[in-house]
Amino acid sequence: MDRRHRGVRRRRAGVGRVRRGQDARPLRGGAGGRRIDGDRARDRGLCVQSEDIMARNDVRYDAFRRITGESEPKEPKMNPPRSGDEQRLEAKWPDRRDDRVTRLFVGTYASREGAVSRTEGSVQSWMVDPETGVLVQHSETEIGIEAGYLALTPDRRALVVVDERKTDGRGPVGRPAAVLSLGLADDGLTLSRTARQPALGPFPTYVSLHPRGVAAVVASHGSFEHVERVVRGENGYDVEYTYDDSTVAVYPLAPDGTLQQASDVVVLEGHGVDPHRSAQAGGHPQATAHAHSAQFDPSGEFVIVCDKGTDRILVYRLCEDLTLALTSTFVAPAGSAPRHPAFHPSRPLVFVSDELASTVSSYRFHTDSGTLVHMATVSSLAPYASRSSEPADIQVDPSGRYVVVNNRGQDSLVSFAIADDGTVEYAHSVQLAESVHPGLAARSFRFDVTGRWLFVADRPANAIITLEFDPGSGSMREVSRAAIADPAFVLPC
């Protein structure tokens, strides 16, 4: 969580009655935070047994025809004049739908000083040449959000995006944090807003969709800023500190991908060792719970939550009524701050980036019980000197041979070979643009479905970098870059 605003937390009205401790509704497998019971979505058509909607639509790339000149739809907002490579790409783009062609959605923040002027973030749609990795922008959807994380429904009909913010509470009060669904037009690229729901926690940082598209889970991190209160106890007056709630919320999705009212919210509690050594603004990364991710496992039965504030990895089971039941808790080493998980595509393995320890941890995942067994931990850093660093995103390449992590501060992208026993070993690294501090470094990266292209949202460079990835050696080399102001998240599909 890198874009924290100052401000005092106030509980949202109308969310529901808060229950704590022994008064909380029992969770199967133990307590995993207090529960907020609001109006629940009871439509059984949205539960796990609902009709499978994983079949992909026959999406036709009308935008490709526009590039070749056969049709001329309404002109979208485009980038400044394109390079010679991009002009040549337009001339050679095939006049047919090509399943190899990748679409790329990019979430952006409001621009910083020195970048292209923009007061709010947006979601941009791009096309990728399957032969060269060159990007061509199709359109930009300016819907007034800080688009920090995106997810695509399995049928490719809608995007779900988090609006990563917190109302400042002073002067003209801004909008609270939200989660939105965006419908995709027949061209598979043009977006329009279909629903907006409250995030039920400040600074939502992560969204994951059920493999059958029946629900979304959202992790809200909260800010680092504390509120100081004067209290009177048995020994007289004293001072206590309170912090934002960090939550995990479940949102049912309609068959067309439209976001519905939340069906469940879990508020995480506790704190870590609070090492006061993060380079991020505020400097108190473990004074309270901070859920930085909530990821469905490939089956959709479980949700893995990385709470970097308490050094815990929580595993919840998704119930039929789209509520969460805690099944297991793994306590990571003190001060490690697990941030993001990445599932292996074909083996019961999970790899986790540990933000404050600058490590990558390997786990075996028991798919019947939802428990994690730690196997090994290695440094996430490239083997050269660096300043304070914090790993962020982590991905496994589609071949399942390598896991890749980016280090903010060292500003590196590092690949690790995955051994037969699930442990990892350093393979290769590339340097990204230098950041002012880890909170403003490259935030996310993703592989395309073929595994050939690796797209990096390089914030300090104000660009999306296309790297060609070698699944034989784990090496990466830059082949293209596209100018984008303050890119936060990339989603190829």
Q: What integer value in Å does the Rg equal?
A: 22 Å
CATH C-level: Mainly Beta
Which descriptor suits the 3D outline? globular
Mean pLDDT: 81
> How many helix segments?
2
- Total strands: the figure is 32
State the separation between the terminal residues, measured CA to CA. Answer: 25 Å
Low-pLDDT stretches are: 1-31, 38-82, 92-98, 113-117
Q: Reading side by side through the largest sheet, how are the strands ordered?
A: 1-2-15-14-11-10
Percent of residues in β-strands: 35-45%
The CATH homologous superfamily name equals: YVTN repeat-like/Quinoprotein amine dehydrogenase
The proportion of residues forming helix, as a percent range, comes to: under 10%
Fill in the CATH topology: Methylamine Dehydrogenase, Chain H
Q: What structural class do the secondary elements suggest?
A: mainly beta
Largest sheet: 6 strands, antiparallel
Q: Any idea how many domains?
A: 1
- Can you tell me the CATH architecture? 7 Propeller
Describe the structure.
The longest helix is centred in the N-terminal third of the chain and has 9 residues, at 84-92. The chain has 493 residues and is mainly beta. Strand 29 and strand 30 form a beta hairpin. It has a single domain (17-492), classed as Methylamine Dehydrogenase, Chain H (7 Propeller). It has two helices and 32 strands.
Keyword list:
493 residues, mainly beta, six-stranded antiparallel β-sheet, disordered N terminus
Architecture blueprint of SSEs:
Elements: E1 17-19, E2 34-37, H1 62-68, H2 84-92, E3 102-108, E4 121-128, E5 135-145, E6 147-152, E7 158-163, E8 178-184, E9 191-198, E10 204-209, E11 215-220, E12 227-233, E13 236-242, E14 246-252, E15 264-268, E16 291-296, E17 302-307, E18 312-318, E19 324-331, E20 338-343, E21 349-354, E22 359-366, E23 371-379, E24 390-396, E25 402-408, E26 412-418, E27 424-431, E28 444-447, E29 453-458, E30 463-469, E31 476-483, E32 487-492
Antiparallel strand pairs: 1-2, 2-15, 3-4, 3-32, 4-5, 6-7, 7-8, 8-9, 10-11, 11-14, 12-13, 14-15, 16-17, 17-18, 18-19, 20-21, 21-22, 22-23, 24-25, 25-26, 26-27, 28-29, 29-30, 30-31
GO molecular function: 6-phosphogluconolactonase activity
Region (Disordered): 1-39, 66-91
Biased composition (Basic residues): 1-19
